[in-house]
Specification:
The protein has 187 residues and is mainly alpha-helical. The protein is 48% helix and 4% strand. It contains 6 helices and 2 strands. The protein has a two-stranded antiparallel sheet. The longest helix is centred in the N-terminal third of the chain and has 19 residues. It is elongated.
């Protein structure tokens, strides 16, 4: 119905009411609505510009920073920039970085005779599958094939706000260079 009271100022004589009256139900409905609207409203800065000057502090950006730092330290210091094959080799190393720990957890489980998995095992397998699916759709990483970009990445201190200065590119599994099998048998 269109005759519902939606704000507190529309309800008269709020002071004296019976707890089970219609007016009490109206007040609780208005209070719940205002609470729901307050939770739904996005946080804005004073000028009303959303997201431009606010720091990105979510778990996703933390994961991206950790990924970038891994690639920063995994890239050989003697190289000015990487080739396409080297970049995809680094991505492959990144995806397999937890394999040894997963195997150790499997061996420990088999040795101890435990049927249940350790929560760490579940976490690592979920992380690995999500990263592999993201790699199929495209990893967003710093462009390691440009010398200026690699230099900026090495100077970067791991701050989220410094990430937009570094040019990014998307690396997909479908774009990875493949080595033909017959090139290895050149004897």
């Amino acid at each position: 119905p269109n005759n519902k009271r939606h704000t507190l100022k529309n309800i008269k004589n709020r002071d004296e009411l019976h707890p089970y009256s219609r007016k009490a139900r109206q007040l609780t409905r208005v209070a719940l609505r205002s609470h729901k609207l307050a939770n739904k409203r996005p946080a804005t800065n004073p000028k009303g510009i959303q997201g431009l000057f606010q720091p990105q502090c979510c778990s996703n950006s933390i994961n991206i920073v950790e990924r970038w730092l891994w690639f920063r330290y995994a890239l050989d210091e003697s190289l000015l920039c990487a080739t396409k094959a080297q970049v995809y080799e680094l991505i492959d190393m990144y995806l397999k970085r937890h394999d040894e720990e997963l195997e150790a957890l499997d061996q420990q489980r088999k040795k101890g005779g435990h049927r249940t998995k350790v929560p760490r095992h579940d976490l690592l397998t979920a992380l690995k599958t999500s990263e592999e699916s993201e790699y199929k759709s495209g990893f967003e990483l710093p462009d390691l094939m440009v010398e200026k970009n690699v230099r900026m990445l090495r100077e970067w201190d791991g701050d989220v706000n410094g990430m937009p200065r570094i040019r990014q590119t998307v690396y997909r599994k479908s774009d990875a260079p493949t080595l033909p099998a017959n090139d290895m048998d050149t004897t």
